[in-house]
Write a structure and sequence with these properties.
Deoxyribonuclease I, Chain A; five-stranded mixed sheet; six-stranded mixed sheet; globular; 13 strands; alpha+beta
C-alpha cells in the first residue's frame, strides 16, 4: 500500500510512475489529486489499476483509491459531503481514504468522523485500512494526546475519541511533513502490520509505503 499527497497528480505523472515501479503497490491511496470529472484515468494513471475517486467541484483537493486489477474490488458508497471514499477488496481488506482540509471547522471533522463510524459499523468483520492526509499536527501520536493548539482542540480530541470507539490504531511513527505526522494510516488489525517506512513524496508531504 502506498499513501501519497499528490498536490496535482497531472503534474506528477513521471514521479508517480517511478514510485509505482519502485514500490509495486497493490493499493495506492492519494489525496489532493486536483482532478475534474472530465479527466480520464489514462491521463494520469496506468490501466493496471482500477481507480475509485472523488473529485472536488472546484478542481482542487480530491481523493482517490487505486487498486491493482489483479485484485477483485468494488467501491463502497459513503453518504458524506467530505473528501472521503471507500473501496472493498474481496476476501482481503477494505482500504478507505480521507482528507481533512487544513481549517478550523469542527463541523467538517464531525461529519468525517460520522462517515468513518458508519462505515466501521457497516463492515464489522472487515479488516480496515484507513489512510490520508488528516492535517492534525497538534496530536502526539506516540501518546495519542493533543500537545499543541494550532487548530480548535475539539477537532483533535474528537478524532482521538473516534479511534478509541472504533478500535482503530494509528501506525505511522515518523514525520511526513517537517516534524509532523500529517499522513496517517489507521487499522483495526495492527497485528497484520508488517512495517511502514518513509519514502520521497510527490509534493511537500513524504509518502508512506506499507509492506
Amino acid at each position: 500500500m502506498l499513501v501519497i499527497n499528490f498536490q496535482n497528480i497531472l503534474s506528477k505523472k513521471a514521479e508517480l510512475e517511478c514510485s509505482i515501479s519502485a514500490t509495486k503497490p497493490d493499493i495506492i491511496i492519494g489525496s489532493e489529486t486536483w482532478l475534474r470529472p472530465s479527466i480520464g484515468q489514462g491521463e494520469f494513471f496506468p490501466d493496471s489499476y482500477r481507480i475509485y475517486r472523488k473529485d472536488r467541484s472546484d478542481g482542487y483537493g480530491g481523493v482517490l483509491i487505486a487498486i491493482h486489477t489483479s485484485l477483485s474490488s468494488h467501491q463502497v458508497m459513503v453518504d458524506s459531503n467530505t473528501e472521503f471514499i471507500a473501496a472493498k477488496i474481496l476476501s482481503v481488506n477494505s482500504p478507505l481514504l480521507f482528507y481533512r482540509p487544513p481549517n478550523n471547522s469542527s463541523d467538517y471533522m464531525d461529519t468525517l468522523n460520522q462517515a468513518i463510524t458508519d462505515l466501521c459499523k457497516h463492515e464489522p468483520n472487515s479488516t480496515m485500512w484507513l489512510a490520508g492526509d488528516m492535517n492534525l499536527p497538534d496530536i502526539d501520536w506516540t501518546n495519542e494526546q493533543v500537545i499543541h493548539i494550532q487548530y480548535n482542540q475539539q477537532i483533535s480530541d474528537s478524532f482521538l475519541q473516534l479511534l478509541a470507539k472504533a478500535g482503530l490504531e494509528q501506525v505511522v511513527d515518523f514525520p511526513t511533513r517537517g516534524n509532523n505526522i500529517l499522513n496517517i494510516l489507521l487499522t483495526n488489525r495492527p497485528s497484520l502490520e508488517n512495517r511502514c517506512e518513509c519514502a520521497p513524496g510527490l509534493s511537500y508531504h513524504d509518502s508512506v509505503p506499507r509492506h
